Amino acid sequence: MILLAIDTSAIASAAILRWHGDEREASVLAEFATEDTKSHAEVLAPAIRALLAEQDLTGAAVDRIVVGVGPGPFTGLRSGIATARALAFAWGTPLAGLMSLDAIAWDVLAGTPAQADSVRSTSTLGAPDGQRPAPPSSDFLVATDARRREVYWARYTAAGALADGPHVAYPDALPALPVYGSGAGIYGEKLAEAGAAVVPGFERAQPTAASLGHAAVERLARGEALLDTAPKYLRESDAQVPGPRKKAL
Amino acid sequence: MNQPLVLGIESSCDETGVGIVRGATLLANTVSSSMEEHVRFGGVIPEIASRAHLDAMVPTLREALGTAGVALEDVDALAVTSGPGLAGALMVGVCAAKALAVATGKPLFAINHLVAHVGVGLLDGGVYAGELPEDLGALLVSGGHTEILRVRNIASDVELLGSTIDDAAGEAYDKVARLLGLGYPGGPAIDRLAKQGDPRAFRFPRGLTQPKYMGSPEAPGPHRYDWSFSGLKTAVARCVEQHEAAGKPVPVADIAASFQEAVVDVVTSKAILACREHGIRNLLLGGGVAANSRLRELTAERCAAADISLAVPPFSLCTDNGAMVAALAARVIMDGGSPSDLAFAPDSSLPVTTVSV
Ligand SMILES: [Zn+2]
């Protein structure tokens, strides 16, 4: 089966994975990821077209689409969801959502931090690697940049199950646990003050479509449902209802 | 291509529009508006509009295809508004359109929203019955824009003669309606109330009409065909405050009528001046404020006096919609225009000289 995964909650990324319906393991056939968080609407669609062409796949060959539903900055997040929904509509392909921070949590358990500039394939996953961080022995946190001096964060069990979140908060309000992800890299000092420890090797980790796809496959193999594609904005729009006009006296 | 079947997507402001045309024949014009969600704010909130676009896009697509009785794979080309407009709102339509282009392999045309407003004139049975006249101009008045365009060739040669330098006319209506406690959207409310008021009760300013801005036909000033509505809004606010400070009831209907007269007078006088000085013999009125009764009346009167033909499309084609995007793209295709590179970016300030990206 072929899975197309898309995530634009931070960087823009897309990946094509192959898996057998009843297995937990999937292999990434092709993937794309940007380094920046600002060009999603330009680059995402051409990248997906190129991935399909590279694998010589048509839309009919795609069995499922999974999209990261955030949390993430609004405009960027929407570009992935709008793309995924339109592709699913045009192809008639089943579509589901997955919380974007789950992608980093999957990387944490796999021991491979995903970064915009270090696209890798799953074939390296089993290889011995002295640099690889040990898997967590306790609950851990995943945090990404929410701008405005806040982070998006969620808490996972040592086995990688979501325990709490996602939330948006100032870094010093996070529980005193190991923190993985780009949010940890940006706010290391603040997190340390709160007793949370930034895990080396994951300071720049962003959610990627490839890891999101792996997380989705794992979940499906366990018989768990995925989410719908409603974006997790976690913040209201900034709009203020105007108060009553002051009358001149 | 002879009569291309084109699907057009619009998401530049608060309407999610999908239109389908075959050449110059309108097959579907489906619009989902988030206007209700903006009422309590008294104006369009970009983030709220963007969220609504995301959720309305696929249902609107599905409905338009159903109305037209065509399948997505039958479409010859896709089109989308790539600007000008609200950046976050444009992004949703552009991403959806690009995804449809990837999914179907159909060419995608990124279209200028302002020029698309004129594109409704291309539709059969519409105001120009399929063929635009020579010497064409367009006056676009809405909550998002106030412009006068010259259209030599709608697919390739459009020029901006004048525009607002601050608020759009429709925005001024919304702000004044709020001052007068009339709710949102302001245009219909003020139009209704103005009928009971005296348009000469107050002399509100007509922005950018002083000689230093206007100049002369030979030596045009810096804003000869431009508008400004911020001073007008301030003048209305001051007028309301003066009545309140004096403990007198605010003459709401007279203020509404006088405000509307100021807007409509300056919009039409500058538009007609631009037409006269650029040899425009045919004027198309578009945008949501084209529904305003006094604007239609005075534009018709002044066009007649200047021997200019006036065309006003039906309201569903004046407000933002996908059909105008599809209609303009169909013409670009029939003129042999090239599709857009899929890597194009939405451009919130796309100039009218760029008809398709
Ligand atoms: Zn418009």
Main sheet of chain B? Answer: 5 strands, mixed
Strand order of the largest sheet of chain B: 3-2-1-4-5
Beta-sheet strand percentage of chain A? Answer: 15-25%
Order of helices and strands of chain A: EEEHEHEHEEEEHHEH
Gap between N and C termini of chain B: 19 Å
Query: C-alpha Rg of chain B, in Å?
Result: 20 Å
- Identify the quaternary structure here: heterodimer
The backbone outline of chain A, from C-alpha atoms, is: globular
Q: Output the number of helix runs of chain B.
A: 12
**What percent of residues of chain B adopt helix (DSSP H or I)?**
40-55%
> Could you report the average pLDDT of chain B, rounded to the nearest whole number?
95
What does the largest sheet of chain A look like?
5 strands, mixed
Query: Which parts of chain B are unreliable, with pLDDT below 50 for 5 consecutive residues or more?
Result: none
Based on DSSP secondary structure assignment, what is the total number of beta strands of chain B?
A: 10
Q: Span between N and C termini of chain A?
A: 72 Å
Report on the architecture of this protein:
The complex is a heterodimer of chains A (249) and B (357). Chain A contains 6 helices and 10 strands. With 249 residues, chain A is an alpha/beta fold. Mean pLDDT of chain A is 89; it is low at 116-130. Chain B is globular, with a radius of gyration of 20 Å. With 357 residues, chain B is an alpha/beta fold. At the A-B interface, helix 1 and helix 2 of A face helix 2, helix 3 and helix 8 of B. Zinc ion (ZN) binds at residues 113, 117, 142, 144-145, 287, 320 of chain B. Zinc ion is lined by residues 113, 117, 142, 144-145, 287, 320 of chain B.
